[in-house]
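Database export, one record per block. Field names are fixed; values are copied verbatim from the stored entry.
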Amino acid sequence: MTEQRANLRGTIQRIHVSNGGVPKLAVDTADVGPEGLDGDWQRDRKHHGGPSRALCLLGADVIERLAAEGHPISPGTTGENLTLAGVAWAELTPGSRLLFEGGVELKITSHAVPCPTIAGSFVDGDFSRMSAKLHPSDSRLYAQVLRTGRLGSGESFVMVAAD
């Protein structure tokens, strides 16, 4: 018999958009389509963006932990679209789904490979500090949009664990 994990609840701490590059800037609300947030774009569309990488997510607890280590990181500086609070980041894994109170639904597709663009968020530019291979519980995550809609800062969600 396999153990089932309970659904976990959290909130959107911040929503971030940019016309390319970092930092992404905070907005109160954003419409979400199959390709991501309205008003957001990535310069390198080969490695970022597209339906399976429509949104980049990061946990507020990760930002707090990295800042406590002395890294000059803050919400939006690593290019995440959503900073999420209230869920232990290590619990989110590829295949997990996020169901937002307004109806948007996301599916975690993969860990986001860190790149030199986010080096300014790390002591000595060591962006490998977010590598899933080295620090799996501190990696950003990519998500696919399963149900479009509008997201707002402070909106709650339920995480449904991967099967």
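Remark 1: The chain is about 5% helix and 35% strand.
Remark 2: The longest strand covers residues 8-17.
End of record.
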